[in-house]
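Much of our argument rests on the idea that a fold can be written as discrete symbols. Part of our work consisted of pairing the sequence of a single chain with a tokenised description of its backbone. The amino acid sequence and the backbone structure tokens for this protein are reproduced below.
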Amino acid sequence: MQRAAFFSGGDAQMAAGDLGELLVPYMPTIRVPKSGDRVYKTECAFSYDSPESEGGLYVCMNTFLGFGREHIERHYRKTGQCVYLHLKRRVIEKVPGASGGALPKRRNAKLFLDLETNSDPNNDDFEYEDEAKLVIFPDHYEILLPNIEELPALVTIACDALLSAKSPYRKQDPDSWEEELQASKHAKTLVQLDNGVRIPPSGWKCSKCDLRENLWLNLTDGSVLCGKWFFDGSGGNGHAMEHYKETGYPLAVKLGTITPDGADVYSFDEEEPVLDPHIAKHLAHFGIDMLQMQVTENGLRDNDIKPRVSEWEVIQEAGVKLKPMYGPGYTGMKNLGNSCYLNAVMQAIFSIPEFQRAYVGNLPRIFDYSPLDPTQDFNTQMAKLGHGLLSGQYSKPPMKSELIEQVMKEEHKPQHNGISPRMFKAFISKGHPEFSSNRQQDAQEFFLHLINLVERNPVGSENPSDVFRFLVEERTQCCQSRKVRYTERVDYIMQLPVAMEAATNKDELIAYELKRREAEAARRPPPELVRAKIPFSACLQAFSEPNNVEDFWSSALQAKSAGVKTSRFASFPEYLVVQIKKFTFGLDWIPKKLDVSVDMPDFLDISHLRARGLQPGEEELPDIAPPIIIPDDAKDRMTNHFVESLDIDESSVMQLAEMGFPLEACRKAVYYTGNLGAEVAFNWIIAHMEEPDFAEPLVIPAFGEVASSGAAVFGAVGLDNQPPEEMVAIIISMGFQRNLAIQALKATNNNLERALEWIFSHPELEEETEPALDMMDMENNANANILAETGSEGPRIKDGSGRYELFGFISHMGTSTMSGHYVCHLKKEGRWVIYNDLRVCASERPPKDLGYIYFYHRIPS
């Protein structure tokens, strides 16, 4: 390769005049960043290299993606893009003066890059020099900047715009998050109906579909309804939005997010999250007193009460001198502002060999076959994060010889201590209303969110999330007829209730409570905290006991009856994740954490919880679905729906069209999935893209044709009990055949969760449908590979022994999942290590009794 040629303003006149000609062939590929373009000038798309790295950072002048020296050639070969802006920040130690201090030096003379890096430009010990130059591949011609007179105007404008561009993560920053939310125009004049509605502190469910997650309280009439369905499988059926369309009541608050500082409020009319300056008053209308949470009975604010200080000290092992750990597997992660939940989960995930092999082991292949924008590819970002944590490249101890060399050369080469997962968090949380914010989140919910994304983005022939998957056998019994029903469902976490009644130190707890109340009355500091000591065996016993089934409908009696449900393991996973259910709500609506100590065992045997199936003498409940009751007003609404004008969410259509799908196919996808959003419509496209009329214009059936073509295209329950098309599409996207999806939905009254359980409990029906494949639509072809891997026996599992050994746990400090801090402890090379964001140290006193989520691996038989 030809040696790089350098051009600068001080070069010969002839060389300066040649700059314009040198760039002429590449001018069509040079773009000026526009509003909305993401400019990645602080971090490589494939690694954690930055302008402060030894090789600097190369920013593509066409895509504005950043690449470290190790990865720039890959992008050039893949795209043919030749012109890059190379950014380099040098860290130079100040020259000591006669007095021993650093000589004052002119500030910011050579600091012009608007970068967000770990270094502090105002550090008194070092100075920073920025350098920018254009590099032309493949010959590595370099043009030092600025060269305003010599460069073409377009190039100068593009370079200036790129250098001054703001961070693509600006919305992720804590300082800007609250600024993005604007006060709703409805907040001041909101009318609230005096209908006597009072909202309890727990036990909520959607008033239309009985869902118990993603619930929203309408601030006008107090209706509790579910939100929309998200791409990760969470969410609801969109009843909150339907309610707004019917009533026009604009504001709703998400239940479970109410804290003393506020709550998540959404404006259906303004179509965005908003601030409600009068939220306390609006919530009080329905019996929710959020202001009471700010001040306790003794007049002290929650932050002033310190009985939980010991929890923070114990979990973080404060007061003990901990030895820092360096090298592969001992890399810390920067806290981006309440992102410790992500850091703790990812440290645990990448301590598992299956995830290491899937992403880091396949790193060259993943990077080589990544899309043109690797920042938006899940597997690329997982591989990047895994390599950052496991390579040791960003966890190097300071070496004495290097320190001496740096002093002699007056140049400071900062040690890479940890990584900043900005790009990973921005991508993995995209589209999720909670994880995309900078508020604290529940680590358990994020773990499930991550597993969902792993499932949806397979890498190689073996999915690493298989190690967590297990089958749960649920035995439901009608208390009156004594008949039973056995079903199976997939799960990834064993949730253990806290058996408070089994505390072994009840006398101490009673004495502590008396002292605490006396201290409050006398306005004295509270006594030293006494935690309830709960035997693990009691929690395990509570898990295995029968639970009452709410609103149980007995198919034997053809009526509602009392029912109980018992759960057992139909299979044991390779890695068992155990959650201690510490979080709840008090009767006063204050989020509470059960501050308990559970003697979690190092070795765990749950073999006795193995499912046994239908036992001799047991009689099964008839496989009859509850009757479908359609109110008269609902029938009228359905009839009117068919004669209304066509309403298609054009924003969702354009999102799909930008992915490269035909416009008419995108319109059909959005229409047939009931305007539930681009994610649901995308599943419809994948399932129907092989059909011959896939890209033909949408034809709406006339009202008289509805009965023959299927009445459920609008997402309502048809009079002929045809399941909603969006639910059918969701099940098909999971790899099941259309006729099986319809049969399951019909058998379960169009309940999506129960329909999936029904499919898993009737594996023989999948086999019976094989001969009918030739007669079916070809819409399932896109998912044939999933069916081939899954087989007729349902989801892939790794069954084996029920004996496990503890290798990690995540602990939470604070009063609720919406606040506080997470720390991870992992057992590596025979000793415990604490991962506290960037701080990675050998653990001296791992607080195994105070954990929130525990990780066990199977002991080989």
